[in-house]
Amino acid sequence: MSESSIPDVTETPAWQELEELRDSADIDLRSEFEADPRRAESFSFEAADLFVDLSKNLVNEEIVTALLSLASSVGVEQRRDAMFAGEKINVTEGRSVLHTALRRPKDASPELAVHGQDVDRDVHAVLEKVYAFADKVRSGEWKGVTGKPIETVVNIGIGGSDLGPVMVYEALKPLKNERLSARFISNIDPTDAAEKLGDLDPETTLVVVASKTFTTLETLTNARVARAWLLDGLRAKGAIGEGQEAGAVAKHFVAVSTALDKVEKFGIDPENAFGFWDWVGGRYSVDSAIGTVLAVVLGPKVFEELLAGFHAMDEHFRTAPLHKNVPVLMGMLNIWDNNFLGAETHAVLPYDQHLHRFPAYLQQLTMESNGKSVKWDGSTVDTETGEIFWGEPGTNGQHAFYQLIHQGTRIIPCDFIAFATPAYQTKDGDQDVHELFLANFFAQTKALAFGKSADEVRAEGVDESIVPARTFHGNQPTTSIMGPKLTPSTLGQLIALYEHIVFVEGIVWGIDSFDQWGVELGKKLAKDLAPAIAGDEQAIAEQDGSTRGLIEYYRAKRER
Ligand code: G6Q
What distances in angstroms separate CA 79 from CA 86, 298, 326, 510, one per listed residue? Predict the structure, then answer.
């Protein structure tokens, strides 16, 4: 392990002050709210169109001030500015980190040129190409090989080339083109491709192969499976004959990648390939050409609005003073919960069915970015890093795992997310169903913060023996995030908010939030194991006892 050039964060005066405050402050939310009638107001903030209430977190003004001085002392502002300026802050990969450049408006000034690249010009040139293609598919001008317009767009990608597009598609589905719909194949489990393609008509299907590197085993395997499915299907219908395969692939396959040479090798016309750059990390790429499936099915206008939402939050993060800067405040609260109060996990609970894939998306964003045990200079981290993110949409989670949050022994900070206006105005008799839904949203954070004391339970006339079981200790920290409505813009704002929260935490820990070396070993071993799985006796014998036993079980039980 190399000597650290990054100061030990736990040795900073701000960190030590926070330790003292943790030991002395003993925040009790009931008392805090009673003592300060303006607490909610003081701890509520606006960021672009989002309203964020931090008042039910286990902090007081003194703690927040100390958290912000910790942020300053580790250089959050300088590192943020370095990121926006395109400095190579992804040290272990030697790259700039410029996902924020993907959403700069066309006329942004001054223009962003980085390491000799006119970033603004290149970003907008690709966007225009994606939009022109999307318009053609949407209008029906782009036709399949038999002359029929496209009806289903199948995105094949995994990780960052899948989770973002699926999540946004699900979130904005009501805005989709009536004729078009999207499907997503990611898993190399053959079930995924079989079930997603099974009932589709190859004549009206367009496949987008989305892969930054165009080397990913899962994606390239699924792309070949889809190509075979397409050609077999067209042949079976008599739609193509021998020698017409390449023409069919050209009409039904497009690609998104930074490796356009590999795209061509696969047989996709480079004319139908959309590029991006090494300075866009996979999990930060939904706003790049990786969103092509979205531009096609939801439309260029929706995609533009999504990008504008991202940009609005970027501007807030870039310019708001730290004490009003929501990504900074939320990032530092996560540090407080994780490093000082001992929380190990963080729940994200959207009260919006359209955000049902948002927790899964955030799991990659947060845990692939900040699940590190060395700093960017190779030295060991000084403290715990990445918390475990998880979640499910409300109210479903209420009937499942909220029990543990309310009455378990662990501290579980939760982000509750909701919107004022629903996607569907639904009544149950006179009852507005969205109001019923939001009543749950408001009730949960209230119950988690203030609990129900033993005396309050007793006052209900409950038998003394079950009073403890019916008592709620409260004091569980929550953040409430509300927006006017789930729109492309507010969704972009929400995603960018979490991107920047992740960034802030990574800076405090001194880690490179933009690499992901931790996923490499398993990938390599999977490749190396192929001969053993196929039955090579020597390769089987070379395995450790457990792996050998598992492979032998597989070989004995596999049906063909
Ligand atoms: C994300 C990661 C990873 C990546 C996938 C797919 O930040 O790098 O999830 O997105 O491994 O990679 P390709 O896009 O190169 O196929």
Answer: 11, 35, 17, 11
